[in-house]
Design a protein that fits this description.
mainly beta; about 70 residues; three-stranded antiparallel sheet
């Protein structure tokens, strides 16, 4: 693991009551919200830090719906 390998995840949801028995819940989950690329470890021989590759995954968004009864 290199420097700046942290990331931030967030989640939002909204529950909508359809009637007395059914509720629909809509979720939005976002991983690596700030899209921080992260750095790989420096080369052990030269100490050069390459910025070609990123240590962290790209930003991902996942949306789901859940029906509760």
């Amino acid at each position: 693991m290199g420097p700046i390998t942290w990331n931030l995840s967030a989640s939002l949801y909204k529950a909508v009551r359809i009637n007395e028995r059914f509720t629909l819940r809509v979720n939005a989950d976002c991983f690596n919200v700030l899209n921080v690329p992260g750095l790989t470890m420096p080369d052990s021989q030269t100490g050069i830090l390459s910025k070609q590759l990123s240590q962290n995954d790209a930003r991902n968004l996942q949306m789901t719906m859940r029906l509760q009864w």
